[in-house]
Design goal:
Blueprint (H helix, E strand, L loop, with lengths): L4 H7 L4 E6 L4 H8 L5 E5 L7 H11 L5 E5 L5 H9 L4 E4 L5 H11 L14 H5 L3 H8 L1 E6 L2 H5 L1 H5 L6 E4 L1 H9 L9 H16 L3 E6 L2 H10 L3 E4 L2 H19 L2
Parallel strand pairs: 1-2, 1-8, 2-3, 3-4, 4-5, 5-6, 6-7, 7-8
Helix pairs in contact: 2-3, 4-5
């Protein structure tokens, strides 16, 4: 079976630098995949793509060694299984608040006896190899998102679910839930303390911890803090930021 390079990097003690895709574009996915990211997440929650486009984006990512992953729209087992059958090598599930919700998510990602995923790896077998069904349980990565105050309070119960590989912090929603203020910054003392507490819990349960950082400096700070799967910006925000910088510089130079 094809290796999951995210797991390989973790085994080497390295941080995974993850990219994020909001644009429903196979071209954007291919360009991002060739830009050096260790992994790329097709975001079906806040991105604008449907499942057919997502499958095509997974194919575009597969032109490289970048690991193809998805964030599902919600904790819906049937949709999760279908995306795994399409070749996703990792799944991030939003808004996990209880152990039972995490069990439902992880179970959908694992074949029996570890879960209840239905056997039918349509494209996954082509992408990963004919022995996919034999090794998928050990290769597919599962991330439960901790992004509400309830999820934070229940973090140890969530992280104790067998088959869970890591937690992914949605700083924006966590900050909104805890403080009532929007934004990706972790500058609030409450949110900053929560990030440390989540990291401590993850280590105690032998899990990896990831998050979405506001910018490069924020990402570097989180890596130094100990987060092992770090995302910064997304394809649309990267394009918008670069375009705005070019326009601003030209306007300033021409008066």
């Amino acid at each position: 079976m094809r290796e999951n390079r995210v797991q390989t990097l973790w085994a080497e003690g390295k941080t995974v630098i993850n990219g994020w895709l909001h644009s429903p574009s196979t071209w954007s996915a291919e360009v991002m995949a060739h830009s050096g990211w260790d992994s790329l997440v097709v975001d079906m929650q806040h991105g604008l793509m449907g499942i057919e486009t997502t499958i095509q984006m997974l194919q575009a990512i597969s032109t490289t060694d970048t690991v193809p992953m998805v964030r599902v729209n919600w904790n819906t087992p049937g949709d999760t299984m279908r995306l795994l059958d399409a070749g996703a090598y990792g799944v991030i599930c939003p808004m996990i608040e209880t152990r039972a919700e995490c069990e439902a998510f992880v179970g959908a990602c694992r074949f029996p006896p570890l879960g209840y995923r239905s056997l039918g790896p349509t494209r996954a077998r082509i992408f990963a190899g004919d022995d996919y069904a034999e090794y998928a349980n050990d290769t597919i990565i599962t991330f439960a998102m901790i992004e509400t105050e309830a999820g934070f309070d229940n973090r140890d119960e969530i992280m104790s679910v067998p088959g869970l590989d890591g937690v992914f912090v949605g700083i924006g929603d966590l900050r909104l839930s805890m403080t009532g203020r929007a934004g990706l910054s972790s500058a609030d003392a409450t949110v900053d303390a929560a990030l440390d507490a989540i990291l401590v819990s993850a280590r105690a349960h032998g899990l990896k911890a990831g998050l979405f950082a506001a910018d490069t400096d924020h990402a570097i700070d989180m890596i130094k803090r100990g987060y092992e799967f770090v995302t910064v910006m997304n394809d649309v925000s990267l394009m918008a930021s670069a375009a705005s910088a070019v326009v601003q510089r030209l306007r300033e130079s021409t008066g």
